[in-house]
Amino acid sequence: MMDSNGYVLVIDDNASRAAALAETIAEAGYHTEVIGDVTQAYHSLQNNSELDVILCELDLDDVSWIEARHALRDLNLQIPAIIISDKAEVDKMMTALRLGASDFFVRPIEDREALLKSIERCVRQRQLRRELQESRQRLELANTELRGTIKMLEQDQQAGRQVQLRMLPASPMLLDRYVFSHTVIPSLYLSGDFTDYFTVGGRHVTFFMADVSGHGSSSAFTTVLLKNLFARKRSDFLRRDDATIMSPVAMLKRANKELLDLAVGKYATMVVGLLDTVDNTLRYSVAGHLPQPVLVSAEGARYLRGEGSAVGIMEDVVYEEHLIDLPERFMLALFSDGILEILPPQNLIEKERYFLNVFEESADSPEQLVTRLGLDHVETAPDDIAALFISKRD
Amino acid sequence: MEEGRILAASQDGAYVIRMTGDVRLTLCTTIDDYFHRMLDRPDFASVWVDLCDAEGIDSTTLGLLAKLALEVRARYGFSPAIYSCNPGITRLIKSMGFQRLFELHENICTDPAEVRSVPIVQGSEQAVKDKVIEAHRVLMSLSDENRARFRDLMVALERN
Asked: What residue stretch is flagged as signal peptide (chain B) (predicted)?
């Protein structure tokens, strides 16, 4: 079998004629086998994928080719066949063609070379079909494996998403006349946007919005790091007299250091705020975050300005701290830049103008805003979108 | 918006990185590699970034540019020039604090007067400066012959 030019099956009920043909083929370097009993042939064909080519006598006793054709069709043979007949008659040739023969020879076979050439062609064709089938099987296998892997990754991401949702603060959170709420829409399962708010001592609430560069798991993990930093500093304030949490600038500097130390090339734009519920004042700081926070009151809507680099890019960062008196009734809205992507205008400056205008026209409640901005029916966001609302009501 | 492209061209150690359209990177290793190779070259003398035809830049790309500026400063002691003449893009890079990382020009870099003040490797000889200025002049003149010298760095990226 090995080292032969191919594996040829001769089907002929005339034993001496078959042996002579087999010998000719064997001399040309083919592994040959003869089957004289046609009923046996069916069985051989069914269980022999090694076969390269079949040489079959057309004028066999007891064989109805019409019936054989059905049997052969059921077998779905991928083996090329050469049909040999005693007569060069049209109906014989038609029968051979209908049987799907690759070639047709008439006895006596005078041109031996032509027959061998034909066998060689059939063997090559058979090899190609085999290779094709093998690569198809390989592909199908790889595809199945990939699907499995993707499924697993998806489940993993969904689990991660559940964990991330758990890390977000309660929404809404009511504190006297102040209301805090948030919405986070990830572009994939896990979001690089994160927001948090929590009380510090008896009169303060610290809040932040962070948008970590990139998407997906690594960005989501970075948000965990930031949440952890804020929780740690809150605890340090309560237990160790460390006032970092009371200063948005100090918190941004800490966040900057933590992200730089992480050294994974992730940076984040942030807004950090400290609300004093007794004085009704806000101390805040902005780190490269767009759009800037929007303050809505009876006087209309305005951006809370603030300059500063994103955190996690450079060592020596400078941040501004702003202290403002808040109106008696107000709504403060912080969004991540994903919101800008879904606004109609083309460039950033027009988007910022449009965004502020939405607040001017319809800002009685966060719910209304979410509807106005089309956030309640975002199918697939091109980027993560997060929103944090802080309101003071009568 | 136009599909984003990142193009790069160099001559005599002077490099120009040009971003056009809406630049979004999912994988940026190719471009990162290019920047590293550029900074490792013994004849590296200057690089500037041209954002005049950029319509949008995502956070990954901004991070990549910031890293480039930081490395140029750390290794060669100068801040690369960045040209931005689209107010929206200027607003974006300023909000990120890029004016502290780059020498920011809010005008078109093809203005011949601009080429006289290319920030380059500190301590360079006057002859080197002249050569770099000339190289930038060649790179920025807008003939089609020169345009063909820009390599598309994003073509090399596997993008979905």
From this structure: none
Q: What is the CATH number of the domain that holds B120?
A: 3.30.750.24
DSSP B61-115: HHHHHHHHHHHHHHHHS-PPEEE---HHHHHHHHHTTGGGTSEEE-S-TTSGGGG
> What pLDDT does residue A288 have?
93
Domain coverage including residue B37: 5-159
- What tens digit of pLDDT does each residue of A186-208 get? 877 888 899 999 999 999 999 99
- Does residue A195 contact residue A212 with C-beta atoms inside 8 Å? no
- Higher pLDDT pick, A154 / A76: A154
Say if residues B22 and B3 touch (Cβ distance below 8 Å).
yes
**Residues B46 and B120: beta-carbon distance below 8 Å:** yes
Which H or E run includes A124? helix A112-167
Q: What is the pLDDT of residue A371?
A: 81
Range A145-168 average pLDDT:
91
Q: Which A positions 253-272 lie with beta carbon below 8 A of chain B?
A: 265-267, 269
Which residues in chain A have their CB less than 8 angstroms from residue B87's CB?
347-349
Compute the nearest-CA separation of A163 from chain B (Å). 24
* Sign of the torsion formed by the C-alpha atoms of A313, A317, A320 and A321: positive
What sign has the CA pseudo-torsion A182, A184, A251, A307?
Answer: negative
Q: In this complex, which of B63, B89, B91 lies closest to A265 when CB atoms are compared?
A: B63
C-alpha to C-alpha distance for A217 and A222, rounded to whole angstroms: 9
- CB atoms closer than 10 angstroms to residue A70: 10
* Distances B148 to B7, B46, B155 between C-alpha atoms, Å: 10, 20, 15
3-state secondary structure of A129: helix
> Read out DSSP for B15-69?
EEEEEEEEE--S--HHHHHHHHHHHH-TT--EEEEEEEEEEEE-HHHHHHHHHHH
Closest to A340 (Cα-Cα) out of A304, A287, A384, A306: A384
- Identity of the residue in A310, A314, A317 whose CB atom sits nearest the CB atom of B70: A314
